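Late entry, evening session. Most of the bench is empty. Finally got around to the prediction I had been postponing all week. Sequence below, unchanged from the version circulated by S.P.
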Amino acid sequence: MADPEKWVGEADALNMDTDETLEQELTEDPADIQPKFFRTPSVDLIPTAAAVAAARRRSSVRSIKRSAASAEARRRSFATSPHKSAVPPFDAAAGEVSIELEDSRPYPPRLETDDEEIARFGGPYTWRDLKEEMKGLCTLKTLQRKLPITAWLPKYSREDLMGDVVAGLTVGLTVVPQCLAYAQIADLNLKYGLNSAYMGCFVYALLGTSKDVTVGPTAILSLLTGAFVVRDAGREGEWAVLLCFCVGCFQLLMGFLRLGFLINFISTPVVSGFTQAAVVVIILSQIKNLMGLPSFGSAKDNIIQTLAGYYSKIDRTNGWDVLIGSICITLLLLMREMKMPAWRASEGAAAGTPPRWWRALKETIRLMSVSRYAIVVVLATALQFVFHHNNIKGLSVVGDVNAELSPPVPPSFNVEGRSFGNVLATFGSGLVLVPLLATMESIAVAKTFAHKFRYNIDTTQEFLALGAGNLISSFFGSYPVTGAFTRSALNAESGVRTPLGCIVTGGFVVVAIVALKSLFQYIPKAALAAVIICACLTMFDFQIFRELWFIRKSELFVLILTMAMCLFLRVEYGLLIGLTVSILMLVYPMARPVVIVRRRRKSLLNRSPNMRLDECRINVIPQGAIFFPAAEYVKEVFNDPLFSVPVKALTTPRESNANGELRGGMALRDALPPIIFDGIHLTSSDYSTLRALRSVFVNCKANHRDIVFVNTSDEILDIIMPFRKKTLPAVAASAGPDDAEEQQHPVPSKHPN
């Protein structure tokens, strides 16, 4: 144990400014008083605990003036005091002012208030919920929820503007080459990619609830769009625009009806299997542009058809395209990993912040890394421009793009002379799959960044924002759009502050269309193919295979099945098959719920040495709620041979003679053991299930067998046993299994062994 005298002497050697220390103690933030494991962003939501802690800290400090002559006596008094704090008193440099801590023994907290709030989440939508929403329709809070720009725009600052402009321009440098490349995935003219990159941004900035999401075309959605458009008459652009209109209407309908929960039925293994297969299909379809082969096939082809096309045209490979494509892929991969090392001060130099030139160089390298797609496409386009003016032919280019800003025009609803109903039938499952996948992708991106930066999003409002974005974009020649993960991550990394950054990105695309439309014709196809391949490489997820192997192999089967069907059939067929199998795996436990049947039998020796009795009971315990798909299955459970084995028991006669009198008295007979059904989960069951249990009850009574329902409410018993007596069954319903058996099916008393 340490010497108190030595401890006091070390404390006396401290040289601290007492007035500043006292002021710091008195003005300390209550949040800093909390232990480190208790500091959370919501500490201001518990002011009572923080205020009590601060008051306790402030009340334990007192300033006392004493002379320097009594310092030794005070130190000795402190060393022998049993109730002092762990920090000894000290003298200032002048030896006149010191701080002494009062008694710091813990004291029990005093209860001030005891409030309780109860909120209901989930369940059916009731009239009460509708009334509550109708009351709040004309409030400022509702306006800010339905039009989020009214919430953040009044608080907009200059710092927000600087962050949004920088982030918006950075994303704009990426979205222009990407939207041109993604139009190739959908086998559409490149102008549809440019038309899809700006109007969705404008609409989402007004209605969206995430500051980081950037709306535009994506690789997965482009592949699905190309799979559902019709290409027979060369009017695939009109089909894509009309699909965008239908997707927007479907998303708006889901938002108004609050059907956002439907996207939760698309499980993660299905989405992962579809995504991985789509990445393989996309990369394989872009190799032809990387090799300079003539165009063949479409987005509807499976992997076998695509490989057959390569086999037939491999002899027409263009060496210039292979060279430029390989260089572009190499540059993109190198620039993605390009970053400055951490600053280290040289020997003899003062450590601190790096110099200005170092910070400028680091920011330049960062901008080059995030703008790598634009840099590579610009360099390849400049090279092709030089080749063109020197009459050097070698690279395959995209050709005339015809990109221009046109006034809003409604999509054609009678494409190729078909009626609107025929058009909808042609889209088929695409009317459901495309909006569901688009919304799920965007909401997943929004939730990711909302969790990272600690703000909330409104899922219903996201449906409305995406639906309005697709609906309005279709009037400007766009195909379906959604939130893009890579561009949203770049937006967040660049320091975006509000959704205004999305408007800056859309404005940059508009300027690019107006100012650079004459240069788009010189973009090499190999450069765009390199952009697509490098963007898709980051979408592979190999970890999910390992996790599902150790956690649940049945879901791994769903993932592999979805991936295989997408590769060897078509992507839309594979997605439908995987979704169907996943839902069947979800519904199967409802049709075959787990029911535990426990039969317990004891052989008893009665006082009479020649009489042996059996004590037997059967407990039926469902492990969850039972719904109508399992109604017949529950009835089949009671037909198991486990229920039909008789036992020896002293029972009353079950049959009567011709005069209606019971034959004989209590005697040893073969009897079926009673059934005790635990109905604790029946409160959530539906009417069909209760009718099935009524049939079980009637069959038991017809076979002179007792059945008791325990942990079951009177309302449920009234349906299962409509003619029951209201007195005795109520007692049995509330009793435990052992008590219910004693009341309904008495057995002889046990003989002690």
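Two things to note before I forget:
The CA atoms of residues 717 and 723 lie 10 Å apart.
The first helix runs from residue 4 to 12.
Will write this up properly tomorrow.
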